[in-house]
Predict the 3D structure of the following.
Amino acid sequence: MRSAITAAAAFLMLSVVPSCTAVETQRVPRLYDVARDREAGMAGILPRLQGKRVVLVGERHSTASHHRAQLDIIRMLHESGKPVAVGLEMFRHDSQDVLDRWIAGDLNEPAFQEAFQDNWGFAWGLYRGIFVYARENGIPLVGLNVPRDLTRQVARRGYGSLNERQRAKLGDVACRVDEAYMAFIRKAYGGHGHADKGHFLFFCEAQMVWDSAMAVHALRYLEEHPERTIVMLTGTAHARKQAIPAQLRSRSDVPVAVVLPEVPGNIDRETIGLEDADYLFLDLVEP
């Protein structure tokens, strides 16, 4: 039987399409405003995003158009004069020195690409536009993820198996989510052929560790940099309001916005409500 952590990784990947290099040219994206039930342009949502401390922009990791949309959000906020940082699921928190050296210009692209591949399993070309734009504009990058062995341990043996020092860094983590998100997690778990209830609990706790750790690291950055908004780039499963935003709300009252990519039949105006996201990027399906 495949391990729970393997199932968790597959759950977060969701789908794979051929990788291609991110396009770095300016575009005019279309968005759907969930609260107002209508389409909106970037200019229309900019004032609302400027008032947030955290903007989560979800992705399917292998879909190039999702990363172009993330870059659009980063560029829009930066060029409006809003001080921003970019929080990354793609880098562990203990790799922060590498990110700092990249932004400072002390690391060349091949060396940074090697560090990226050590942290993340998807193609460099998908993310290159984001990293180059951040470097060229002095936008801080923040590693949000946890070491693989920590989530692997929780997925196999549960959150209770972590030592006191490990738990202190994460705070209270438990498989406590609302009914809709629990159904979402159960569907993902069942889809990988698991039936054991104990393993499901560990699977759920591993998701909560991911969500909690990224929330904690983002909040710590914001405490140290009160002038900045952090744009968090994560998989769609983490970006939904029931995931990282719920962990943020349990620890802070910082204002948060969630932008998800449209994925017809899964994430679209018929299937997503205000309890899931604030905005959808439209027309992001790869040709």
